[in-house]
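input
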Amino acid sequence: MAEVEKGKQILTKSDVNRAWRNWWLYCEVQSNNVSFQGLSHMLSMMDSLRKLYPNDDDFRAALQRNSQFYNTEGTIGAVVNGMTLSMEEERATGENVPDEVMYSIRTALMGPMAGIGDSLVWGTLKTISLSIATTFALSGNLVAVPIALLFPLVTYFIGQWLYGLGYSLGRNAVMDMLKSGIMDKIIISCGMLGLMVMGALSAENVSLSILTEFTLENAADPISIQSMIDSVAPGLLPLAVIGLVYLYLKKHNNKYGMLIIGIIVISVIAAFFGIV
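output
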């Protein structure tokens, strides 16, 4: 390994941002059943590793070290990538950072970060942004396009900040975040916001009315079952539909295709007999 002043910073902000952009572009491209995102993780850091290790043998060892099994969520998990890059720089400048330390930290944190990222990014942010965009699109409003594009843009800059955070704070960054409880508060807050938005969208877009009427003897006008339900609790039937859909998905492990087919069949039959 070439002699470098111990503790000296070799990588620039541009190098770190380039590593993040490569990860953002490639994190799922080269996923396989052996190393999962290992090759993408290595590829995203290749330029920085070449700068850190001018010696070919050291460079090859770094590529092999960072192409091992790796699997996390691309946005929130970027903090682990930044932390790994920081450890590689520490090692390149003479710090004692064994391979085992890099493997263990990366392996220990990629799972929790994946769980946080899947629930926060894909389960909440994506659902909210695309649900709002879909609502505007159904009404023919072109504002649906920029709203839909907000999701990749927002996640890009969140991931870039987390990558830089992991690099700046080093291997203790994620542990500090987890211990402080910041991530738990963010997840709970976003979950509450997501429930409010989905509740409003459900009330706006789900509708169900019972058309069946009956006439009492000597009554001038027929009595509508729907009007009776509305007089007790307006919107009760759409709420019941949403509740039944939720229970079905919870019990049958998100079998969306069967759910859609079932709703279509029931709707056609009920409409044919004039029930709804």
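quick obs: The chain has a mean pLDDT of 83.
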